[in-house]
Amino acid sequence: MNRKLNFRELSLCLQHACNKLPHFKNLTLLLLLVGVLSVSASAQTATIKGTVRDTKGEALEGVNIVVKNSTVGTTSNASGHYTITVKGPNDVLVFSSVGYENSEVVVGGNGSIDLMLTPKTITGNEVVVVGYGTQSKRNITGAVAKADLSRSENLPNTNITQALRGSVAGVQVTDNGRPGQGGTILIRGPRSLSASNNPLVVLDGIIFGGSLADINPNDILSMDILKDASAAAIYGSRAANGVILVTSKKGVTEKPTIRVNTFHGVSDWAYKMKTFDTERYVQSKLDYRKQSGLEADPAKILDYLNKSEADNYKNGVSHDPWEMASQKGRISSYDLSVSGRAKAVNYYLSAGLVDEKGLIYNDNQKRTSLRANLDTKITDWLNIGTNATFVQRDLSGVSADLSFAYTNSPLGNWFYPDGEPTQYIVAEDQAYGNPLRAPLLTTNEEINNSLFSNFYAKVDVPFVKGLSYRMNYSPNYRWNHNYDFFRQDKHLTNNTTSATKYNFEGFDWVLENILTYKRKIARDHNVDFTFLYGRNHSETESTTATASQLSVDALGYNNLGLGTVLSTTSAADASEGISSMARVNYQFRNKYMLTLTARRDASSVFAENNKYATFPSGSIAWILSDESFMSRYKFIDMLKLRLSYGSVGNQAINPYQSLGLSNTTQYVFADGGSTSVGVFPSSMANPNLKWETTNTANLGLDFTVLNGRLGGTVEVYNSDTRDLLVRRTIPTLTGYSSIFTNIGETNNRGIELSLNSVNVQGKNFEWTSNFVLSHNKNKIVHLYGSDINNDGKEDDDISNRWFIGQPITTYFDYVFDGIYQEGDNIPAGSKPGFVRLKDVDGNKKIDANDRAIVGSGGQPKYRFGITNNFKYRNLSLSVFVNGMQGWISSFPLLNTAVSPNAPGRGLNQMDAGYWTAENKSATRPSLVYNNPLGHNWYMSRNFVRIQDVSLAYEFSKDMLSKVKLQNLRVFVSGKNLYTFTDWLGADPEVGGTQPGDLYPMPRSLTIGLNVGF
Fold first, then answer.
1. Nearest to 64 by CA among 110, 107, 103
2. Are 500 and 557 in contact, with CB atoms under 8 Å apart?
3. 68, 60, 228, 242: which is closest to 143 by C-alpha?
């Protein structure tokens, strides 16, 4: 008979034996008790085996199986099999895999557990980072959006902002496509008139002071956006413009995982802004002369051109300035990571290299990044660790000057016969220089370094269940330099050499003490308390040294002492802050939620009377679908209603702005003496300067229907921002020209919609979609409160183009009313081909009183993005379309005869058409219209863009198991493939309106490879 002795039977046997041996009873009992405990522990240990499959019955490899609340874990093999050791029947196994819902199974008396994982649909149960912790999306009460990073895993993104571009409702990302540029982010519209509207970035729980371009996208696990005041109030005085929470990756499996990601691509101009080519340039000279009443004989064109232009035209020599100032764009990226988890250590190590060449000559970036995330479990109650990243960005090289490229003649000379660049393309007309001269004659080294880290210790207090304490210390050290040496121009006799050295150092640190307490009370109540007290410090210093007319140029910028004229400037600043915060999350019956938060901040950048400010918030949520009266609606899976209100602040001003500051000047008296240094007051103190404060109300509805096939979120919000930080102009008789002060109020209100759908889900084919739509209306509510003209209404600030009841970016100008044609009733001073302006006030003359609001810009009225994902077996296709509608922008380059457009000189301009006697345009003036009233031109920035398309193939697990690979994916992608727009500039999304801002958006084609070992 082969029968196992259970614990109860063994205990009775031991008790009987002890009673039979009374002389040894006490000693034996002790020894046997130790043995029993050992046998009992051994007897409760069990080995569990099983197979994990998907809903189609196919084996799943790489599924993580861990014993809940322990470090014991394993992964399934290529056949879906796993083996794991548990301590007893009460242990819980947690099964998790990317793309599938997590599942928990109690071991019980089972020796074998087979499981089927369900693909993730739109259930809303994913974990979301909320600041100083995480929550299930089901329990979120504020407006928190999670970026879908899986959409960008097959795209050549080198910046994390590119993953947000058009994909999150309420978030406007402007990316100009240039190497090393971080782009700009606007969440729920602009709030401030003068202070920053940039959101706060938090990396691994710590406020990040560096550039978003410093973060390697391959290291990022998730990005969560806090949009309303309730969610963002936990960061208090820095959260008025929203918060972006970035979380880096950690080890997942016990077996070390090695991943290699690489992609290579080429790029060209998505759109080349049209300027005059040779024939159009020559024709414009003839038309200009004719319209000016000058001789315009085509046979004499060589007489009308500058000599250098005439020589090239006669010899058939011409250039496209855009082509001359550009280069072939390309990109290469290499990323290697090693990650894993052992019994006591979780680690993620990575290294990345990105090499980008932009479309403009010498516009390049090389980025090297290193990351180490380590977490060590010292005891059952103590964890220590660090998240550290080092990034070096090499932006060396002076790029070609686009303002010069835009204005240069197609008939100019770019190089001397010996290959040296000319100083001016057209030597006879020296208004604008050669775009390539500075890049070719300058040796430049620009290196930006950043070391950001977070050292932490977490204590799970052993004698109080649910109580934990965490300490963060996060230093961030940045050091940059930018060195220039301009060598001697061989074709000039004067000394053209100059050298500059700029050095910068910045050091920030944050120290935080965080106490959390989680407890379930009885059956229906769950509470979660978070308390924080912290300090922060920031300091910077910089030095710039310049030398010109160097006696020897062999040493470049390495010996500024060789210069004839020397100058040095330096600057430094520092700021301090204190923060305290309390938050409570309460859940009743898991369907009624309440969150209350209060944060109090102090910052040295504000005046003595207003160092401290308090920012409270509250939010509630109700899961209606859990109510009994909703049971009749079988198609509803989850329905949650949220309501929140709170306040957050904006401290985005430089240190010392509230103080009375002085400046220095140098003066040489006419007495032959040395230079004297004088000190004079430069700014007026404001002892009452304080934070901008934004109060936001938010109503949200989250839903999932049709068994998870369709889900989404609707948000409606209203934000009022008061005490705007503005540098206000004051009468100079005070001795000052301006003062930093708090004025006025702005309002933002809008609606956001996010939808996710599983359109088709078959055995071999799947089609899913994501759609986001947002509308924001921004306006100025109050300014100075003055009514100088006594009309009963608050005065606008016309000089700054700030108007009560209108958006912050408002265009106030004369109203375009067409072009005067021959036979029209043309007023004195005008002639056919001139612009007709609207007589708004009807007094039969055009003056300043005829100016009116012609539109608004800065942000579109509507933003939308739609992603369609198709998957057939191992092949997947993703198509993303991005659009912005309902905005305009001024575009001064449509001024045909006003600088930099000067058709009578050897300068080029945009070819957008113009009026002639033969081509009587109704929208474009003649080449001699000099715009006497200085009105501007306006264009729609509406666009719809096929932004990202990617095609990927995932090799099967069976095939990979033969070559010992965990995963292998190859992909090809296209970015910025086509844009539908009427905008005539370089790109409607960026909206550059000056010659120096006309950077082209690159259209790129990339091939990539992702390998896991």
1. 103
2. yes
3. 228
Contact at 8 Å (CB) between 611 and 604?
yes
State the Cα–Cα distance between residues 268 and 358, nearest whole angstrom.
9
Distances (CA, A) of 241 to 196, 229, 693, 902: 8, 9, 10, 42
Q: Are the beta carbons of 234 and 140 closer than 8 angstroms?
A: no
Question: Position of tokens 């000190």?
Answer: 679
Q: Which of 538, 546, 568, 544 is nearest to 238 (CA)?
A: 538
Retrieve residue 773's tokens: 């739509």
Please give the structure tokens belonging to residue 66. Answer: 């861990």
pLDDT digits (tens, 9 = 90+) for 810-860: 999 999 999 999 999 999 889 999 999 999 998 889 999 999 999 999 899
The per-residue b/e assignment along 682-693, b for 16 or more CB within 10 angstroms, e otherwise, is ebbbbeebbbbb
243-248 and 257-269 strand pairing = unpaired
Pairing mode of beta strands 862-872, 875-885: antiparallel
Contact yes or no for 88/46 (Cβ under 8 A): yes
Strands in 820-942 per DSSP E: 835-837, 852-856, 862-872, 875-885, 888-890, 938-940
Distance set, CA 260 to CA 338, 969, 1008 (Å): 9, 11, 11
Angle (CA) 514 619 103, round 5°: 70
**Helices (H) and strands (E) in the chain — how many of each?**
10, 46
- What's the token pair of residue 526? 């769950």
> Taking a C-beta distance cutoff of 8 angstroms, is the pair 536, 573 a contact?
no
Structural contact between residues 558 and 584, judged by C-beta atoms closer than 8 angstroms: no
Token output for 746: 């702005």
Is 412 within 8 Å of 312 (Cβ atoms)? yes
E strands in 626-737: 636-650, 661-667, 676-683, 692-705, 710-729
Do 185 and 863 contact (CB within 8 A), yes or no?
no
Residue 286's identity, in one-letter code, is L
The structure tokens listed for 484 are 């220039």
Amino acid at 858: G
Give 36-76 pLDDT, tens digit per residue: 333 333 445 788 999 998 766 778 888 889 888 777 888 88
DSSP secondary structure code for residue 910 in this structure: B
Distance (Å, whole) CA 819 – CA 833: 6
Asked whether the beta carbons of 361 and 327 are under 8 A apart, the reply is: yes
Backbone angles phi, psi at 707, to 5 degrees: 55, 45
Our CA dihedral for 853, 858, 862, 863, rounded to 10 degrees, sits at 170
The answer to whether 354 and 367 are in contact (CB under 8 A) is yes
Q: Are 485 and 514 in contact (CB under 8 A)?
A: no
Query: Nearest 5°: CA angle at 152, between 148 and 158?
Result: 120
**893, 995 contact by CB (below 8 A):** yes
Assign 691 a pLDDT band (cuts: 50, 70, 90): confident
Please report, in angstroms and rounded to a whole number, the separation of the first and last CA atoms in the chain.
Answer: 48
